[in-house]
Design goal:
This protein has 125 residues and is of the alpha+beta class. 26% of the residues lie in helices and 29% in strands. It contains 1 helix and 6 strands. It has one helix at residues 75-107, and strands at 28-32, 35-43, 49-61, 66-70, 116-117, 123-124. The strands form 2 sheets. The protein has a 4-stranded antiparallel beta sheet with strand order 1-2-3-4. It has a two-stranded antiparallel ribbon with strand order 5-6. β3 (49-61) and β4 (66-70) form a beta hairpin. The model is unreliable at 5-21 (pLDDT under 50).
């Protein structure tokens, strides 16, 4: 009889999920004047690595009193943009070369310094 008169209070909770995952950072940056190119390392689920780049221009906003960035470039900044892109392209090739070198060393087995092998790659005692 009194069940219909009973008030039920629903409890709600607020939870915040925090992660300790650090913010991704570029593996390299190329800067000329106010133009900067950030180089990012990407990895697929299969473990394949590649690089991408993002370009921006820094400027000081006097009204806000702080530094800001933009993805648009003036006529005079276009030459800097081209040079930064060229330098970033070279840097990406260097990073890829380093990756290939490290990968080739990972595939080699540990070999004693004094090991001797025949022409077929078989260790000779």
């Amino acid at each position: 009889m009194f069940n219909n008169l009973r008030k039920e209070t629903a409890m709600t909770t607020t939870s915040t999920i925090t992660t300790n995952t650090p913010k991704a950072r570029p593996v390299a940056k190329v800067r000329l004047g106010s133009v900067v190119c950030a180089i990012w390392q990407q990895t697929s689920s299969e473990g394949k690595t590649w690089y991408s780049a993002s370009v921006e221009r820094s400027y000081f906003d006097e009204k806000a009193g702080k530094w800001k960035s933009s993805n648009s470039f003036s006529r005079d900044e276009m030459l800097l943009l081209g040079k930064v892109a060229s330098l970033a392209n070279t840097r990406i090739y260097e990073l890829q070369s380093r990756d290939r070198t490290e990968a080739s060393h990972e595939e080699l087995p540990d070999v004693p310094a004094n090991a001797i092998y025949d022409a077929d790659g078989v260790e000779v005692a």
